[in-house]
Amino acid sequence: MRSASEVEASHGGLMGLITSLAREASTAPDLRRPGMAGAINALIERLPAEAGTEETSAGLQRLLEAGALDGLMDEVGEQPSIVATRTLLNLGYPHALRVPPERLVAMRRWELWSLPVPWLALTATLFFAALLQLSFVTMGHEPGRHWPPSAEALAGQAPRPRTGLELAFRALGPEFVASGLLLANGLGWVSAVTLGRGRKARPWVRRGFAAVAALGLVLGTLQFAVDFTGAAVGAFVSAAGALTAWRMLRTP
Length: 252
Known about the structure:
- By secondary structure, the chain is mainly α.
- It has 11 helices and no strands.
């Protein structure tokens, strides 16, 4: 069993780290703040197990009264101020009675809160990306045909031998690849408008759009390498639409 001095040192170390992280997170760039808030949440949740009840209560109340945790939110929308309030309530009597009423109201609002989804901008972005993708695929159906003509066709020379990659894309057809990307973005849109409001589901929806963007870049590069230029540009446009959707769904 740990001595009182060891408990106090452990608590002081955690509280000092939480305070330091909160101070640093308040001035950190937007990309770093969610990760730092997540670290603060994890440390707060460790306090009851690694420190005495009185020390935990006093430390969290000081942080809340100073507003040191306000304005922070992790990747799934969890706020350190809410985690601290919930921890105080879980400590039971009499510590729960010391939670300010405004903190209880904020926690209740947070429990009922859902993340906004910019569905109109999201729909317009993916719709125009789909239109552009179909346009480029239609203009550049095959290498050497339609848009743009190959160097061999312009020079009146015999076409070069086809590579295995080109034969594979020809067997699948540009429409198959384009349809797959269109379907993926469509499923992403459905997920965004139905699940994107949830704090825990939102990161997975964003990861789905990031995966579509990466797939579009890879397929576009491969098709461009075998002169399926129109289909390649269409894949790049699809990737750009998915990447824009990923950015739109950032946690506010």
